[in-house]
Design goal:
Elements lengths: L3 E7 L5 E2 L15 E7 L41 H7 L8 E6 L5 H14 L4 E5 L4 H10 L7 E5 L3 H11 L3 E5 L16 H18 L2 E7 L11 H5 L2 E6 L6 E9 L7 E7 L2 E4 L3 H6 L9 E8 L2 E13 L7 E4 L3 H14 L7 E7 L11 H13 L7 E3 L2 E2 L5 E2 L4 H10 L4 E5 H4 L9 E5 L2 H8 L4
Parallel strand pairs: 4-8, 4-9, 5-6, 5-7, 7-8, 15-16, 17-20, 20-21
Antiparallel strand pairs: 1-2, 1-3, 9-10, 10-11, 11-12, 13-14, 14-16, 18-19
Length: 462
Amino acid sequence: MAKKRVMYECLACGYESPKWLGRCPNCGAWNQMEEQLVQSTTASSKSPVQVNTSNNQQTGRALKLDEITYNNEVRFSTKFDEFDRVLGGGVVPGSLVLIGGDPGIGKSTLLLQVSVQLANANQKVLYVSGEESAQQIKMRAMRLALNGDNFWLLAETDLLTIASEIERIEPDIVIIDSIQTMQVPEHTGAVGSVSQLREATAVLMRIAKGNQIAIFIVGHVTKEGNIAGPRMLEHMVDTVLYFEGERHNRFRLLRAVKNRFGSTNELGVFEMLDVGLQEVGNPSELFLEERLPGATGSTVVAALEGTRTILAEVQSLMTPTAFGNAKRTASGIDYQRISLLLAVMEKHCNMLVQNQDAFFKITGGVKLNEPAIDLAIGISIASSYWNRATNADDVFIGEIGLTGEIRRVSQIKERLKEADKLGFKRAFIPKNNFNDIDTDFEIELVPVATIKQAVQRVFPRQ
């Protein structure tokens, strides 16, 4: 009989200890050690999943690079351009993709729509749900007016049963919703525990790699916004996607934080409607459509997200503080960047912001964290501080240094092309970028060398 022993595993990071600890020595989390029964395995134990190894390379010895046979895998499209963009051009057979997001954000709706689109393109799809019954998924599909002949539904949490169904159906794509509900019966540990998550993901990875099946797994997130479970979960998969957005905002953003088959800087934009998720081909127009003309503290920035240029509105609100310490709040912008820019504006533009409460927001639920947004934030601070409106046809691009200089940014032509296409009349850009532009734009270019010079050009005689 197999011998059992007790181990304590951290729910936050997966650290194992032979005794219970109040604080995890690996990640520092408190009260996260969970008791696990570890059963020693014998050499004769078999893997619960049969893997097709007929196409695998010979294992057990190192091979020269020229001896390895390589077949250039052909990606297949999901018929969702935004989804394909984030994946790097389409779905790669044999890939394991993890999608995380807040509850109710639309992860299941997105994957259900993608599944039916793939099924309509003659791809066999198996949708496995551990949280909803087949009738509930059918009801949601009817509400979204979806239909697919190559679409199979399975309400199951046992990975042995799921593996046998995969072997019987031989699908091209498998959706697992969600990984926290899956369990390997031969493995000890409660459903959703660190050990079960790790083992279930390992089983799915063997299925994906051994049978060239693309598997999408849904993961819940914690209060901090990270995918629940050990950090190892993100290391095991090929691609990690985050589905973001405010629940009361109709926009949803799909962002890649890890991608072995493409860029991690791509961003997909969707709009949540009563008929499901719709792609947003030109998000800049929607992000700017509700901008008020003549509003103070409002500027537009041309930011880069991967290969796409997004024009977003930066809003600032400066008000005298009623208490001793001024309050700073930021949404969609890094707080440290805000503190830095407020200090630069006070030092180089003669603005006393110590006694001002400052509130910042990027509209549309977008999060921008690149240096080129500095100039737009600085001008919005001056606009709100002096209560003077900026020109609605101006766009601002540039990084601000600690000495007040406007520094060069990358891909200036792509940013100006998008601003020109949307009808902006004037663009404030770094002076060092001006000589790099050899293309004629209808938009007027205003090169600036310092933040003080930019403020004087935007607000004359101030």
